[in-house]
Amino acid sequence: MYLLLLTLHSWGRWAVLLGLLWGLGQAYRGWWGGRSFTPLDDTLRHGVATLAHVQLTLGYGLYFVSPVTGAFHLRDAVHAPGALFFGLQHVLAMTVAVVVLTIGAALAKRRTPDAAKFRTMALWFSATLLLVFLAIPWPFLPWAPRPYFRL
């Protein structure tokens, strides 16, 4: 169970990142180019939020079965920065990122002029992407290195 969740969660990050980048590209092009908000744009807005929710759900499942977070105690976190990252920082930052994305997607849906929809989507998705980039356990991080792809 643990290895399956770990692999799905590891590969799911790329789907979320690609979806966010695609959504951002569409949002900024629509905002700056004066395009109309099409059903494809709306599907993309909703699809990226859905992907992020699935990824968060996989992450929560992983959080509760992982030996890394199972052994996490806040009082020992000073001596184990990797445990602190996965036990607190990663899950908290990613939860906040998905909340920000959800708020942005909901606000964009409710805006009436198309430029306002694109602007809202662009700004909130940008904030989400920043949070996600900061919270991913990249291979170059000294406290929590993880591979780009798990096999």
TrEMBL record:
It comes from the Bacteria. The chain crosses the membrane at residues 12-32, 44-63, 83-108, 120-141. Keywords: Membrane, Transmembrane, Transmembrane helix. This is Cytochrome B. It comes from Hymenobacter citatus. The lineage of its organism: Bacteria, Pseudomonadati, Bacteroidota, Cytophagia, Cytophagales.
